[in-house]
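It is worth pausing here to work through a concrete case rather than discussing structure prediction in the abstract. The textbook approach is simple: state the sequence, then state the predicted structure, then interpret. We follow exactly that order.
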Amino acid sequence: MTDQYQNIFEKDLQYVFQNYTRQPIALTRGAGAVVWDVDGKEYIDCVAGIAVNNIGHCHPAVVEAVRRQVGELIHVSNLYYTRQQAELAKGLVLRTGMDRVFFCNSGTEAVEGAMKLARRATERTDFVAAEHSFHGRTMGALSVTHKSQYREPFQPLLSKVEFVAYDDVEALKGSVDQDTAAVILEPIQGEGGVRVPHDEYLRSARDICDDAGALLIFDEVQTGFGRTGRWFAKEHSGAEPDIMTLAKALAGGLPMGAMLAKDEIASRMQKGDHAATFGGSPLVCTAALASLKVIEDEKLVERSARMGDYLMQGLKDLELDRVTDIRGKGLMVGIELEVKCGSIVDYARNHGVLLNCTSDSVLRFVPPLIITEEQIDSVIEVVAQGIKEIE
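Step two, the predicted structure:
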């Protein structure tokens, strides 16, 4: 271990909450789909800040927009109007098909807002969520997050939450009733292991909610902004939610979240019902506007679909014995293994590829959408060797 690493690790150990399981590298800069550590070693980044850096690290258009905005106006609070927030709200409404936007700072905050709005709009109390779901770690969002490891230390959470099997229409139908404020679903589950439902499942969820007078919330925090080969994953099924949550890739790497809703739902939120001090500041809105323009100008949604097909086919061509499934849409891909995949993550990192493992045995690939075929080829080669190592 070099002196630089030793110094960073020791300070972290002494001064930072030890609530993260970090990989033993310290990153210092990034460009495109590549990052470098403090010793100058290069890595192809297939984590992308957990699906945050869709347009790549430090895209020049975002860097320049943020640099200009920092010199003009950083923060004023939501006591006042700003041009950047109004423009971004319009852009998100046009792209999502929703009607109104509430800005916040993260995915979990967006989910909290969605849950409050659902209760306010329906005057009901209960929620239905899916097994293997992940919606955040604050108390409300955690209440609809399935994994017991995240939930149990903080019980009691919201009591009126029922979890049902994902991609199971009958299970969902049997759980939604006159007390259900909302059903909350990820159109593709990320943390749960890149689980892709049948399109009919999401369309059926819409019908089930309509029949019961409940709302449908789509959590697109991880699946948004081209990640799945569409602007938003809901487009694969054609199902439309009442409320959407967005974050991660929204602002090109800066922290930002958004909760969107149809007009008749949004109108139930009264002045003073909800707020966020830093939500939609001029700085992050500027970054988001620049990021959306990059996605559009560089046709990254279409590129995600194309590169995703290339990655999926390359992984399938490996025909490795320990692989039980390869699934995903666009550049949101998972390899499910018969064994835990932590050792493969370590092998890949040591050979210049950053991956992460979800649900213990699923390797998750969520690289920047600007990743090249040559970089994908390198990733596949390293992953193939890493899997062979455990055999």
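Step three, interpretation. The CA atoms of residues 38 and 376 lie 24 Å apart. The two ends are 29 Å apart (CA to CA).
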